[in-house]
Amino acid sequence: MALTTDIVAMYRRPRAVVRRHLAAGQREDRALFYLMLACALIFVSQWPRLSREAYLDPEVPLQALLGGALMAWMFLAPLALYALAALTHLIAMIVGGQGSWYSARLALFWSLLAAVPLWLLTGLVAGFIGPGPALSLTGGLALAVFLLFWGVSLWETERTAEAA
């Protein structure tokens, strides 16, 4: 299936989508692609907010704000997310999880990518509307959907040794 089709399907049947990704076999290149694409799109989602901040406070130029966000999302976040995936797999192993290191990474990276449309919406709200209830609502919704996807994905990947 196409990536966009899988993202849409994730909102309807997340367990089936995760099972399909696991059935494709261990593809570290695919997991890394999901991670880097998600980080790049989340970086892009920050542009409206950063543009608004640069306009409201011209002391810090837009290029500096974009450079900081680029460093954070494209270089630091992937390292932190790899560590987070390893930590969650260790915790899952302690409580009886039977997945693999790869399946824990896939669960986290795919969940992040599947929630990106809501992060893009949150970025637009932050840029055009600014701080307030709308931003809190969209940001909370994006975080909740990501956590839901990640929880379902991790449950699916860690519940049986076949997921490994």
Account of the protein in words:
There is one protein chain. The chain is mainly α and 164 residues long. It has eight helices and no strands. Helix 6 packs antiparallel against helix 8 and helix 7 packs antiparallel against helix 8 (133-158). The longest helix has 33 residues, at 62-94.
Question: What is the element layout, followed by pairings?
Answer:
Blueprint: H1 3-10, H2 14-23, H3 28-45, H4 47-56, H5 62-94, H6 101-114, H7 116-128, H8 133-158
Helix percent band: over 70%
Indicate the overall shape: elongated
- Percent of sequence in beta strands: under 5%
Count of helical regions: 8
Main beta sheet, described?
Answer: none
Return Rg in Å.
17 Å
List the keywords.
single chain, 80% helix, mainly alpha, 164 residues, elongated, 8 helices
Task: Summarize the entry for a quick read.
With 164 residues, this protein is mostly helical. The protein has helices spanning 3-10, 14-23, 28-45, 47-56, 62-94, 101-114, 116-128, 133-158.
